[in-house]
Amino acid sequence: MLPTDDLKKISFTRSIRDGDLVIVYERHDVMKAVKVCESSTFQNRFGMFKHSDWIGKPFGSKVLSNKGGFVYLLAPTPELWTLVLSHRTQILYIADISFVIMFLEIVPGCLILESGTGSGSLTTSLARAVAPTGHVYTFDFHEQRAASAREDFEKTGLTSLVTVGVRDVQGQGFPEEFVGLADSVFLDLPQPWLAIPSAERMLKQDGVLCSFSPCIEQVQRSAETLRSKFTDIRTFEVLLRTYEVREGKTESSQVEGGGSVELPPCKKRVRSKEANDTNGDSSTVMVRPCSEARGHTGYLTFARLRCLVVYVERLLKDKPT
């Protein structure tokens, strides 16, 4: 769970307690969420770890197994939770999530409406962004999926910041109780244009809406609907390219005239000291794009609710004399 202090504020500085959720980190692509229980153990390829040895240690600690292997115990931040949560639907990842929070102008104290909840990846980050005084109301039409998301938010300690509802927002719209109260609205729906009229009624003046769609045809249909009541309509595709940085070996070869030419980087080989001195091999840092890069995830369409004063002025301006 997102660790909290006695005042129920999110805190990553306190020690691990019995019942906490921790991320057991082996390496960047091998992590697991584990609930701490004093009488339990955790086993992996490095050996057996006693949960009782974890209690009282600060998040980020390195702990040893009975075989001398080790793992790190990390706080379940939204970034890490996104990497380890159960996928009930396709989720949003960090690149899209950070973009959404920035362009929706989400700050502590905001009231956010979301549909649909899915696996809750974005919802977790939204909750941290609005903490400690804001709230996220998220809706999913699938009852079992909503129940599973609610259980996850209990595990991660977000029940005071997130409320999960079962509702077909495409057909029913958002609940009337939120009319004019939402700072931002996020839609992840197959037909978002059906929910846009309701979202427009929920938003405060100058509020911002975001719709996530995997297909450009959905974007076009949504943009047509947004044009009547929204302004500053923009669509983005966020593509992330990561790089590997590692130490490698380069070999220098003598050329005519006494100079040398550097050969392409190669794997390290075991050489004698004399051989290294003779051939002039040197160590260098090599950087290259990762062989596996995440491609297209979806399109993010943002729009700002047209200010009522500006809207009325424009109507008066266009009115025939």
Automatic annotation (TrEMBL):
Superkingdom of source: Eukaryota
Record's keyword terms, sorted: Methyltransferase, Nucleus, S-adenosyl-L-methionine, Transferase, tRNA processing
UniProt cross-references to SUPFAM superfamilies, sorted A to Z: S-adenosyl-L-methionine-dependent methyltransferases (SSF53335)
Region called Disordered, residue ranges: 250-284
Predominant place of localization: nucleus
EC number: 2.1.1.220
Domain tRNA (adenine(58)-N(1))-methyltransferase catalytic subunit TRM61 C-terminal stretches: 69-304
GO function terms (MF aspect): tRNA (adenine(58)-N1)-methyltransferase activity
GO biological process, one term: tRNA methylation
Residues involved in S-adenosyl-L-methionine binding: S119, G120, S121, L122, D140, D168, D188
Compartments, as annotated in UniProt: Nucleus
PANTHER family (alphabetical): TRNA (ADENINE(58)-N(1))-METHYLTRANSFERASE, TRNA (ADENINE(58)-N(1))-METHYLTRANSFERASE CATALYTIC SUBUNIT TRMT61A
Name of the protein described by the UniProt record: tRNA (adenine(58)-N(1))-methyltransferase
Annotated source species: Cucurbita maxima (Pumpkin)
